[in-house]
Amino acid sequence: MKRSKSFMGIAVALTAAALLAPVAPAAAQNVRIGYAIARTGPWAPGAQVTQEPNYIMWAEQVNAAGGLNVGGKKRKIELIGYDDRSNMETVVRSYEKLMSSDKVDLILPPWGTGANFAIMSLAKKYHYPMLSCTATGRKLVDAKNPYFFALLQQPDVMMDALAEYMVARKVKTAAVIHVDELFGLEQFTSLKSSMAKKGIKILEAKSYPLGIKDLSPVLKDMQAKKPDAFIGLTYPPGTFLSTGQAKAIGFNAKIFYLAVGTAFPIYRDKMGAATVEGVMGLGTWNPKTGAAAKAYFDAHVKRWKKEPDRWASAFCYAGLEILQDAVEKVGLDRKKIRDYIANTTHQTIIGPMRFKGSENVSTPGVVSQWQSGEFEVVWPPQRATSAALFPKPDWK
Q: Residue 307 and residue 320: Cα distance in Å, rounded?
């Protein structure tokens, strides 16, 4: 309950910021950018850590510099944001309104794989380029929607990286849980394929519903099988829950890997840096990965007095960089923006990014791990900011 209240505190604080931030006064010459995002409900922890803070900060930064350069004229950004209440029907209705009746100039994506998938057809219907930073899954990129671009690495890319790391450590067995939602299903399908190719045996796999309150029976059953690795393809509530309950029963595999939320600073802060020491998960970057990443990190901390997460936050900001560059190159013609995004190698805070169809094919799969308070990149070796801790230290 304490962790839940902490998440809600973040959501409320950022909701207030979104409503009060002096992004731009309403005016006909403004560039109107619309989005729906979870400010309440179970999606809010992810959305309010990873996405809306970046939307607001970016708009403030651009406006402070005079605005977006559209055809040689600086125009202020006006953000139009709705709370989707973590409800899929509200997501779809909100984006339909933004595109068809509000007629915003541009859109920014909602949070999560499922919500992004739900509005892809609208983006195509109304010709709005969509740079999605919290959506990952072959179902999305295989839809071949010309207006949809997935910035995050795809599940097979991330799971292949994990499997490669496991092989390097001579890990032979794993137990797996996954959230019963499009994200978890896509990740688990890729994980099974990666494990099979590498000869790693999955001793047990269980799905769980979003909103579950107790995973301890599943964890105890898996603990009894003594897997070399425990892998949780989780959303933030499941990430916190499985960590706390695994610690409580002393379930400590050589590799303890979780998904969404592991890269959140609040995960480290609320669970305790000593507790999460050695926990692995989905991540891509940290302030050590480059000067641009460090500048972004510092700006985020200065604006929000909180750190960004070490996975999708930087991708969200990178998507905003790409959108800004496209507008300044080709104006507000959305078809031209789409073509520019599709056919250009973009320089971003996480490095060069190029799309093949809807997929970012430039950013490799990565494994990250909490070490002494930082979510270090530990695999592949050429991108590592630290050597991995293996086996995972005992719970503290």
A: 18
What are the pLDDT digits (tens) for 161-203?
A: 999 999 999 999 999 999 999 999 999 999 999 999 999 999 9
* Whether the domain at 2-150+289-360 and the domain at 156-282+366-383 fall into the same CATH topology: yes
**CA-to-CA separations, 395 to 240, 250, 253, 273, in angstroms, rounded:** 14, 7, 10, 11
Cα gap 137→154, rounded to integer Å: 6
Q: Buried (b) or exposed (e) across 49-69, using 16+ Cβ within 10 A?
A: bbbbbbbbbbbbebbeeebbb
- Phi and psi of 259, rounded to 5°? -105, -115
Distance CA 341, CA 323 (A): 8
- Give the fold, CATH level 3, of 156-282+366-383: Rossmann fold (3.40.50)
- pTM recorded for the entire structure: 0.90
- Using the structure block, give the residue that is written with the tokens 């930082």: 374
CA dist 64 and 22 (Å) reads 10
Residues 6+ apart with CB under 8 A from 288: 294, 374, 376, 385
Using one digit for the tens of pLDDT, what is the confidence trace for 335-346?
A: 999 999 999 999
Domain boundaries along the sequence of the chain: 2-150+289-360, 156-282+366-383
The CATH class given to the 2-150+289-360 domain equals alpha beta
